[in-house]
Each structure stands twice: as structure tokens, then as C-alpha cells.
What does this fold into?
Amino acid sequence: MAQDGHFAILIPVYNHADGIGPVIERARGLGLPIWIVDDGSTDGTAERLTTIEGITVIRHGENHGKGAALLTGFAALAGKAEWAVTLDADGQHDPADVPGMIRAISKSRRPIVIGRREGMVGEDVPWTSRFGRKFSNFWVRCAGGPDLSDTQSGMRIYPLPEAAGLGVLARRFQFEVEILVRARWAGIPVVEAPVSVCYTPGMKRISHFRPFVDFCRNSTTFTRLIFMRIIMILGGRL
It folds into this structure.
């Protein structure tokens, strides 16, 4: 993979000053360019990133959301990479799984590849992750998106520039489910590949997911997508 310039690592980060260093070091093993989008961190993340060599950092002056950070990364990678490999900054993903995800890409199609997290059971897995996955899987299908097992995984491979041009409106966590629906509408295939996930007991894991607020945002996003789907069906566009 080291010689393949078609791929680049893209990591959105917000207030992960203590954990972003190890995540980057593990990603280095892939031999790919590493791009970080600091989404307005206020905890020293920006200062920590300045001490790490061999990465490209883009910074938002204030927090705009994970989706906005991903779109900033897509735009920055335009013309520099054909695929963006996204990892979360909380350390739950193992970059060693990326080659297996790349193998899920066929020569004739340019899909979005979702890292389907295995082992999402047990006391160490946050209930919000278990419930959220089932919730979004169901509503992604209802909105006319693909039938997937893990619509909330942040470990993905996005084709560029296709992913940047899907017209996704959500700018926070909801971006990652809306883009799957819009990809299906646009005829872009979405496939899954198994990956591991780490929810180590006692591990200090920082999550910015807020159950009530993000449940409301998710519900609003899915309502909008389902309404749009109905309009497109009635108009003969789906």
C-alpha cells in the first residue's frame, strides 16, 4: 500500500489532545499520507498536532461538526487522492483493517466502503453505540438507503470526488448516515467489510455524542430524507 498514492488517511478531530497522537502513530503503518481536520478544538489538540511531524493539518476556527470536517478534508484532498480513508480520533479503529477494506473495492465500481465493526456486544460497548446502530440501520433503509449492518461506523473509504458532490446537508454526526442514503439515490454502491473495534475496559474514551440532542438531530435528518424520497418517487426520479 505504501506505494499507492490513490489513498489518503483523513481523521476529523475535536478535543482529543491526549489520544490523537497514538491514533496517528498507528495509522503511519499504512504508509499513506495523513490529513487531520481539527474541528475547532479547545483542549490543546491544536498544540499537540504541531508537535507531530509528517502530517497535514487543517484547522477550523470553531467547531462546525464532524460532517463539516469531513467535507473540508474531501475538498483539501481533491486532485491529491482518489480515495479518503476515514478513521475516528477516539482510538476505537485499528488501521491494520484498512487493507481488507481496500480489497472490497472492485476494479469496475467505485463504492463507499463501510468498516462493519465486529464484536459490538458486551458491557464495554456503550449502549448508545448499540442502540444507535440499530436505530440508524432501520431508518437508512426507510429513507431509501442501502441495507447495511453498521451505518454508524466512522471507519470508511470514500471515493473522491464523488463523495463530495452528493449534496449532503447535515454537518454533524448525521452526515455519516445521510451520505449513505444519497449515495444510494445517486447509484453509488455501498459495501461493507469487517473490521475490529476497541472498547477496552477502563480506556479513557472521549465521545461527543449527546443522546437526546443527537437523537433529535437524527430524527430530523431522517424525516427530511424520507420526505425527499417520497417527493422523488412521486416525481418519477427514483
Notes: The CA atoms of residues 115 and 193 lie 5 Å apart.
